[in-house]
Input
Amino acid sequence: MTDFAALRERMVARDVAARGLNNPLLLAAMRTVPREEFVAPPLAEHAYEDRPLPIEAGQTISQPYIVALTIDAAGIGAGDKVLEVGAGSGYAAAVIGQIAGKVIAIERHHELAELARDRISRLGYDNVRIVEGDGTRGFPAEAPFDAIVAAASGRHVPPALLDQLNPGGRLVMPVGSQLWSQSLVKLTKNHDGTIDREDLCVVRFVPLIGAQGFSDEGSEAGASLAQNGPD
Output
């Protein structure tokens, strides 16, 4: 029988802490959430490899290091209200929920939203809510947010997301070409409404689809953007 607890501990030590991400809350969260529960059973034995894995609807679950880096960069703390765009399997939302006070995770694929909602409920993560919809529009009913993270890439950050960010809030998402590599960026919204940008690393994600993102046909729709998961 596979010892998932031992594999999880090794993953956190080797692929997260050893790469400089030492926030105790983040490490504890990643030690707690069972990644093997967020992939199909045949892939469970690979759950703690530091690479993305395929999930339903032709999407991927991001590699553990990228999940950790995104959460760390967003500066998520206890009591924060967080919006995740692109819930996918629900894994990142579950990890964030171990730190934050409340998490809203949006997923446009019906199948993924239903599966993620079932997993979150079964595992008892009561402060995480999975909603189906267009993540490029954010979630006005729960705005503003202390942090927003996106598991998909666009040429620009959707204006709706910046509008729904609290002063002092942080937004982390991949930005760049739909076909080539993107930059994982951190945007901080100052109290005067100006935005500070920091480029973190090169990544490759699937395009963000929606009214303020790319269309299903691959071109940009509305204002600008894309949805992507690393590959």
